[in-house]
């Protein structure tokens, strides 16, 4: 398989960050104007912000990279017979943390990843309300940039004297999280929405993110690449591979941590 070299990935990171930032502005306009909440067939919420971000990012990526297919949460999901021919593809969650967007707590993100074969090689996470973008990949390192500032390298960090900080979903709690914390003597915890959790792990603010309930490939691919770039680990719960482009696009649990 042809793989994208580090220089090409770094150039692509610039273009994808700009795209995610523009999508974030479109989302914020709607956040401020107001919106209706509809339910998808699986009863999860969707708004015109999810759709507007999807339309903008898919159009922009199609112009910039016409040869790279895109799989978006809000787009058409082609069958595996078609997708299995893809050597690489973009994986987009145009508004991750829609429940947080609806609750207006600011913890929502735009996630764009480039997957090669079964692995994410580049991930962008934009947090529009905080005005910050995170990006990285296993051959690229990891970076954070506040609007108007310079790119800063970031890395996962070992827990300090207070012990590890655990990450958990704000809107989709799992009972196993409590048991994990008790078993491992973890006393500090941050609940956060969507891919904000991956950013907190990648910059060393938190240390452990065990996930027990369902996520989809577009929820994790960008954060997965970011954490590998920041020197952390991201595996299946048994320590094995965590592949993408699966038939049903649904993830099992995972374990992301500092290393
Ligand atoms: N019961 C549920 N209902 C809706 N979404 C769920 C869910 N359980 C997990 N999810 C997924 O969890 C994502 C949010 O992550 P977190 O739980 O870490 O905040 C959602 O992404 P979207 O908001 O993009 O739909 C969705 O894909
Ligand atoms: Mg999502």
UniProtKB/TrEMBL annotation:
Its main location: membrane. InterPro entries: CysQ, CysQ/Inositol_MonoPase, Inositol_monoP_metal-BS, Inositol_monophosphatase-like, Inositol_monophosphatase_CS. It comes from the Bacteria. One of its GO terms (cellular component) is plasma membrane. One of its GO terms (biological process) is phosphatidylinositol phosphate biosynthetic process. It catalyses: adenosine 3',5'-bisphosphate + H2O = AMP + phosphate. Mg(2+) 1 binds at residues 73, 93, 95-96, 219. Substrate binds at residues 73, 95-98, 219. Its EC number is 3.1.3.7. The keyword tRNA processing does not apply. Belongs to the inositol monophosphatase superfamily. CysQ family. PANTHER family: 3'(2'),5'-BISPHOSPHATE NUCLEOTIDASE 1. This is 3'(2'),5'-bisphosphate nucleotidase CysQ. It comes from Desulfobaculum xiamenense.
């Amino acid at each position: 398989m042809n793989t994208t070299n580090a220089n090409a990935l770094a150039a692509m990171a610039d273009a994808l960050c700009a795209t995610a930032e523009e999508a974030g502005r479109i989302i914020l306009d709607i956040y401020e104007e107001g919106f209706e909440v509809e339910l998808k067939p699986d009863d999860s919420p969707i708004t015109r912000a999810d759709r507007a971000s999807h339309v903008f990012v898919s159009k922009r990526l199609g112009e910039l990279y016409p040869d790279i297919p895109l799989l978006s949460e809000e787009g058409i999901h082609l069958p595996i017979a078609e997708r299995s021919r893809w050597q690489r593809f973009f994986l987009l969650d145009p508004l991750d943390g829609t429940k947080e967007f609806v609750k207006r707590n600011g913890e929502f993100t735009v996630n764009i990843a480039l997957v090669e074969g079964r692995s994410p090689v580049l991930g962008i996470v934009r947090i529009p309300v905080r005005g910050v973008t995170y990006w990285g990949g296993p051959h690229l390192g990891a970076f954070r940039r506040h609007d108007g500032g310079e790119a800063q390298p970031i890395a996962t960090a070992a827990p300090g004297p207070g012990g590890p900080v655990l990450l958990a979903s704000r809107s989709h709690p799992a009972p196993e999280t409590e048991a994990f914390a008790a078993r491992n003597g973890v006393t500090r915890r941050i609940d956060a929405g969507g891919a904000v959790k991956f950013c907190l792990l990648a910059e060393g603010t938190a240390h452990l993110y065990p996930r027990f309930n369902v996520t989809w490939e577009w929820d994790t691919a960008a954060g997965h690449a970011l954490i590998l770039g920041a020197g952390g680990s991201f595996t299946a719960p048994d320590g094995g591979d965590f592949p993408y482009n699966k038939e049903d696009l649904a993830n099992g649990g995972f374990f992301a941590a500092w290393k």
